[in-house]
Amino acid sequence: MSSSASSPTGDDLVRALAALANPHRLRIVAALARERAYVSGLARQLGISRALLQVHLRKLAAAGLVTASLELSEDGKAMNYYEVQPFVLTLTPEIIAAAAETLTVPDSADQPGANR
Q1: pLDDT at res. 114
Q2: Bridge-partner residues for 66, per DSSP?
Q3: Cα separation of 20 and 97, whole Å?
Q4: Any residues with CB less than 8 A from the CB of 46 and at least 6 apart, and which?
Q5: Mean pLDDT of the chain
Q6: Measured at the alpha carbon of residue 34, what is the angle toward residues 85 and 61, in degrees to the nearest 5?
Q7: Distances in Å between the alpha carbon of 25 and those of 29, 33, 42, 53, 101?
Q8: Which residues make Cβ contacts (< 8 Å) with residue 24, sequence separation at least 6?
Q9: DSSP string of 30-84?
Q10: Packed helices 50-62 and 10-20: angle between N→C axes, nearest 10 degrees
Q11: Torsion angles phi and psi, residue 37, rounded to 5
Q12: Confidence at residue 108, expressed as pLDDT on a 0 to 100 scale
């Protein structure tokens, strides 16, 4: 998700809203807004498994809301640190209408087996 003042594309908006539409992911963004963290420490802090945390971090990263950097600890252990990327998400009917014009994701009505 871009931090610029320009309106998001429809696809960017769908990715960001889908990524944020989960309580675990909201807690992850909140924790990373306070400070960057490595996976094991963040999992302990949030009280979830590392495997579940990784799933949520991948979704947030795909939406451009967090980034990762691999760093070596003093004992040589590879540690994946995550940090939140600055973003502003403003929703108005007009912004949604403009974003909808740029969607490349097909409507669910166009999907096989969808009720019409």
Answers
A1: 46
A2: 84
A3: 20
A4: 24, 27, 28, 31, 53
A5: 88
A6: 30
A7: 6, 12, 12, 9, 28
A8: 46, 48, 52, 53, 56
A9: HHHHH--EEHHHHHHHHT--HHHHHHHHHHHHHTTSEEEEEEE-TTS-EEEEEEE
A10: 160
A11: -150, 155
A12: 54
* Strand, helix or coil for residue 13: helix
pLDDT of residue 2 exceeding 50, the answer is no
Residues 15-59: pLDDT tens digits?
A: 999 999 999 999 999 999 999 999 999 999 999 999 999 999 999
Count CB atoms within 10 A of the CB of residue 103. Answer: 13
Q: What pLDDT is recorded for position 1?
A: 55
3-state helix, strand, coil in the chain (%, to 5): 45, 15, 40
